Amino acid sequence: MADKPAVGLTDAAQDAVPVSRPKPARNPVFQMLGLPKTRFKLPSRNWLIFLSVTGSFTTAILYDRYHKRKAQQRWCNLVSHIAQEPLPATTIPRRITIFLSAPPGDSLRAARDHFHEYVKPVLVAGAMDWDVVEGRREGDVRAGLAEKIRMRRRKAERRPVRDAEDGTEEKAKAGLAEEAEDLVQNLRDTAGVKEWEGVQGDLVLGRNTWKEYVRGLHEGWLGPLVPPPEPLPEPAISTDTPVSITRQSSFADDATPKTDQTTAASDQQPQDQMDVAKEKEKPKQPTQIPSYISPSDYSSAPLPQSAPEALPPSAVVPFPHLLGFFNTPIRIYRFLNRRYLADETGREVAALVLASHIRACNANLENASNRDPDTTPSTSNTAPPPADVVPIQKRWEQEGVLRGEERDWHKSAWQLRAGDEERTWKDPMVIDARVGSRMRRFELGADDEERAKRDEGVDAAAKGAWDSVKELMGWESDTSVKGWEHGLIGDESG
Questions:
Q1: What strand order describes the sheet that includes 358-360?
Q2: Is the pLDDT of residue 334 over 90?
Q3: pLDDT-derived band at 28, boundaries 50, 70, 90
Q4: Left, alpha or beta for 221 (phi > 0: left; psi -120 to 50: alpha)?
Q5: How confident is residue 493, by pLDDT bands cut at 50, 70 and 90?
Q6: In sequence order, what are the residues at sequence separation of 6 or more whose Cβ sits closer than 8 angstroms to the Cβ of residue 125?
Q7: What backbone phi and psi angles, to 5 degrees, belong to 173?
Q8: How many angstroms separate the Cα of 47 from the Cα of each of 38, 42, 54, 55, 378?
Q9: What pLDDT does residue 469 have?
Q10: Is 197 helix (H, G, I), strand (E, B) or coil?
Q11: CA separation for the pair 259, 320 (Å, rounded)
């Protein structure tokens, strides 16, 4: 019996063969643009690592920049109402004095950039005017502040510069500055222009400038008006020129050749020895301007009668500045947390602009027991009675201001160079009680701080989600009126 062909199996095998589907037609627009054929797929492991690291770092930068601008805007809004207050045309606006100097191991540009980035926005929002005392090297700020105080003392005591100064160059500089200031003041008096009647104030940038500022106050109020006499140079014994002793002879034939030999020997003196002698004769310029008074002479120096009962208040702004390749991790961490620095700086500058709370600098007494623990047995762990506690040292508040910044200073700030009798940055701060008790500080009141938080909450509630995203990415357009543009808007034809 013949087998029948498996018709059903053959049909099933034919049906199981996959049928090729036509590929989707490519977009003719992309084809005409010459774009390659690509299909979506996950990136490789290396690309995932790269995108994760760069994305995280970029997000951290954007987040910090957003909160930094937010903190600065909070303090700018707190003082912006001062710019709207009317001011008489015959009154000079409030003018503060800003002290900044180059940080150790760096140039003055770093201090200027820090001022423009963190301090200037708040001052502009409050319509402040300012003078700047800059120091390119150590001691310039101290000398500049001391000279301003001495000029004020000469005016109060009615002593002319010619009688007070001794020296041609210094006398000419002081005389020109005082004559220019007197000329400007006479013009203002003639026009009926008045000075600002309120408090002015000083702004100090960084720990190094603060030490020079305190030193300049002491030098200006406790130091003399006349520069101290320079010490007489010790007579130097020259050993470069050889001494030749010749013996005269009774014979003319013997004297003539000896004279010729002596002249030839003197002509053969090397030229380099003469150049070295000239270099030694040149006076060496000091690394910083010498001070009029030493800190050890503060207690014996008299306080002038023109000294005010309270010195102008000051505000100290932090200026962290770290150098070095091995400090790169710390510098990156600080770069990603600049919002905290902007908030702290804005708080100090806002307190100076508002000038609503001013307090005197405090002094704390460090106490100790006058009982010897080796000879006096202790029966308990209780503290000694008050009669046995005596003050041993007075610590002023000014000594501890921004002391942590000294750890970041370059090593050149701690080295004593040749020819330096003293170093303002390296030496410890010395405070005289007569000057320290007259110093004052700006302080932000609790009501002002509460108002700043409340205004920040109102601004955040008024913004939408899209506005917050644009501000975070830096896409928003600043349509606010700048401080220097007030009064320039409107019809100027009339």
A1: 129-135, 95-101, 202-205, 314-317, 440-442, 358-360
A2: yes
A3: confident
A4: alpha
A5: very low
A6: 75, 76, 77, 79, 80, 83, 483
A7: -65, -50
A8: 17, 9, 11, 12, 71
A9: 65
A10: coil
A11: 72
